[in-house]
Design goal:
heterodimer, A: mainly beta, four-stranded antiparallel beta sheet, 0% helix, 52% strand, B: seven-stranded mixed beta sheet
């Protein structure tokens, strides 16, 4: 089945720093790829997605590009804010049972 | 606005008791999912449903059951609660078949089994 590898963290950065959270996956075929974010005490919400190779998803200053050749979907943001502190999940989708989530990366942004 | 709700938000129960967690969505989505979230494991799929009367086992289905009698609800039942089932449970729904559509998540239920 599908699987996802992402750093678990915690990843601690200072405000305005550049962020990269790596995500690599194994999947059958060419699934859609998603990044979800979970703020403290809340459920997951979609951050961005890409549905085919070379697509770039973007939202709230975050970006990720669907790299078929490296089976990767790394999340980036040029200047993080304290409000970006959360847990981020990478998830390929397309299988019969929906999405496969990574273990999540805990991001802490310090002022 | 459409939404997905879960109840209760917090539950404490004893080992061996039957527990049912409710999930209700007003998106009119065909697909519904139950996950559990544990430190170091991320989200793991328990059960899912692609429509009324349809249910399927996920990665960690032992000790859990679901039933789908209408589009809006997918209750999750722990037949005989165990301490290993202490976790945060999330319900989600999506519109289309397969995994190409966004899943919308509920706020979660924190379950403690003593």
């Amino acid at each position: 089945g599908d699987s996802v590898t992402q750093m678990e963290g915690p990843v601690t950065l200072s405000e305005e720093a550049f962020l990269t959270i790596n995500c690599t996956y194994t999947a059958t075929g060419y699934p859609s790829l998603f990044w979800y974010v979970q703020y403290p005490g809340e459920g997951l919400q979609l951050l961005l997605k890409a549905t085919k190779a070379d697509d770039k998803g973007s939202n709230k200053g975050f970006e990720a590009t669907y790299r078929k050749e490296t089976t990767s979907f790394h999340l980036e943001k040029g200047s993080v804010q304290v409000s970006d502190s959360a847990v981020y999940f990478c998830a390929p989708g397309g299988g019969a049972d929906g999405l496969t989530f990574g273990k999540g990366t805990h991001l802490i942004i310090q002022p | 606005d459409a939404e997905i709700t879960q109840s209760p938000r917090h539950k404490i129960t004893e080992t061996g008791r039957q527990v049912t967690l409710a999930c209700h969505q007003t998106w009119n989505h065909n697909n519904m999912f139950w996950y559990r979230q544990d430190l170091g494991h991320g989200l793991r799929l328990i059960h899912y449903s692609y429509g009324v009367q349809d249910t399927n086992k996920g990665e960690v289905s032992d000790g859990y059951s679901v039933s789908r009698s209408n589009t809006e609800d997918l209750p999750l039942t722990l037949e005989s609660a165990a301490s290993s089932q202490t976790s945060v449970y999330f319900c989600a729904s999506s519109a289309g078949t397969g995994g190409t559509n966004e899943q919308f998540f509920g706020p979660g239920t924190r379950l403690t089994v003593l």
